[in-house]
Amino acid sequence: MKRFFGCVLVAAGIALIFSVNAVAAGGSVKIGFFDLQSAISQSETGRKFVDQMKKEEESLNGVLEQKGRTFIAAKDEYEKKKDAMDEKAKSRKEKELGDMYTELQKLRSESNAKLNEQASAAKGPILKKVHDITEKIGRGEKYDFIIEKTVLYFEGSEKDDLTKRIAAELDK
After folding, report:
1. Which of 9, 39, 40, 85 could be 166's S-S partner, Cβ–Cβ 3.0 to 4.6 Å?
2. What single-letter DSSP state applies at residue 158?
3. Model pTM?
4. Alpha-carbon span 75 to 96, nearest angstrom
């Protein structure tokens, strides 16, 4: 977290130095901004990505739910019958339940890791495209800086909000 804030402060310092130099040279600084999450969610490309991730999550959750129901049924059955079991049978069943629970937790962890990996892989090309779009807008319209909104502490004017343009360009 400290590293993130350090990077933000360094970036803000660099932006300040450049803007002071530009203003001192008699020019003005043109800064645009956009909201990455909004641009993705407003574009058809982004909505397809989100839908794809939801389908994958539902698929993985279906497997997890089935395993969870199996575990709960086995646990409930054990709870009903444990008073009639001898110590050896109880111990064996408790170990079996413990193994089932461990397997369920492992599967949950693996599913989350798989989903995160797939999301990162699928989001990579979108982020590359957003970078290319912002670079094109920046060069074409002579922006000095285009900043992603999550690190923006103040937004002065909506005229420099490029979110909708970036979302539209994502679909081209």
Report:
1. 39
2. G
3. 0.57
4. 10
Joined tokens for residue 165: 């343009």
Position 24 scores a pLDDT of 46
What is 30-94 written as a DSSP string? -EEEE-HHHHHHHSHHHHHHHHHHHHHHHHHHHHHHHHHHHHHHHHHHHHHHGGGS-HHHHHHHH
Task: State both tokens at 148.
Answer: 């992603």
Alpha helices by DSSP H, listed for 141-160, are none
**Token digits of residue 53:** 């991730």
Question: In degrees to the nearest 10, what's the CA dihedral of 22, 25, 26, 28?
Answer: -10
> Model confidence over 83-120: pLDDT tens digits?
888 889 889 988 998 999 999 999 999 988 988 888 88
Phi then psi for residue 145, to 5 deg, are -145, 145
The DSSP output letter for 161 is B
* CA–CA dist 29, 24 (Å, integer): 11
Rounded to 5 degrees, φ, ψ at 37 are: -65, -40
- Cα 165 from Cα 172, distance rounded (Å): 11
Which residues face 31 on adjacent strands? 145
For the chain, the domains span 2-170
Tens digit of each residue's pLDDT (9 = 90 or more) over 148-158: 877 655 555 66
